[in-house]
Amino acid sequence: MNALPDFQPQRRRSPVRRPGRQTQPQRASRHHRVIAAETCLRLGVNLGLSAIAISTLVYLVPYRTAQSLKLKEVQGEVAQAESRVAHLQAEFGRSFDSNQVKSILQEQTHMVDPSQRVVVFDDRIPMDGEKPGNMANLSR
User: Does an H or E element contain 91, and which?
Assistant: First the structure.
């Protein structure tokens, strides 16, 4: 009884070709065909994705220009609104100024301060042959 297991040399296989087995050149050829097919498939997928990306860009460029025009229009309106708000805020502050109450009252109600005199200018000029005091004959 040996402590070592029985060692039997493996039999060499005969070079007889069995059906279903491929030789080395056939395997290499098949391997190259698989790699070529995989490369063509990758290339096709990448070309398809590139075509989709380009067509999307073609549709997005006009949309972007339209949106930028709308943005400029809105920015113009915002600038107008800001100037109007600034004017209204100044007017609002003026409305509560106690020193300007009389002038604001005169502007809004056309009332005159009792200490002031009202002067009315008459632009009508009498025509030839009319008396200056007779204004009823004017047809203007």
Answer: helix 24-95
Domain contains 19 = no
Place of tokens 């491929």: 22
Number of structural domains the chain divides into:
1
- C-alpha dihedral over 58, 59, 65, 70, to 10 degrees? 180
* C-alpha dist (Å) from residue 118 to 19, 121, 126: 126, 10, 23
15 assigned to some structural domain: no
* pTM higher than 0.70: no
Rounded to an integer, what distance in angstroms lies between the CA atom of residue 26 and that of residue 33? Answer: 11
**pLDDT digits 0-9 by tens, 72-114:** 999 999 999 999 999 999 888 887 777 777 777 778 787 777 7
C-alpha distances out from residue 134 to 76, 130, 139, Å: 57, 7, 12
Within-domain flag for 104: yes
Range of the domain at 87: 24-109
